[in-house]
Amino acid sequence: MAADRNPALDALRGLAMAGMVLSGLLPSGVLPWWMYHAQNPPPSHVFVPTVLGITWVDLIFPLFLFAMGVALPLALDAQALKGLSCRQLAAGVVQRAAMMAAFAIYVRHIAPHIVHFPEPWQGALFALAGFSLLFPLLARLPRHWSRAAQLGVRAAGLAGAAALMALFRDAHGAPFSIARSDIIMLVLANVALAAGLLWLATRTRPELRLLFLALLLALRLGHGEPGWAHWLWQASPWPELMQTSFLQYLFIVIPGTLAGDMLLKLRQDEAPWRMLAQWGCWALLLAFALNPYEGGIQKGRATLSYYAGGVAAGALLLAALSLLVERLDWKARIAAGAGRNPLLVYAGVQALLKPLLLLTGLGALIQEWTMAPWVGVGRALVYTLALCWFAAWCARRGLELKL
Question: Model's pTM, two decimal places?
Answer without folding.
Answer: 0.94
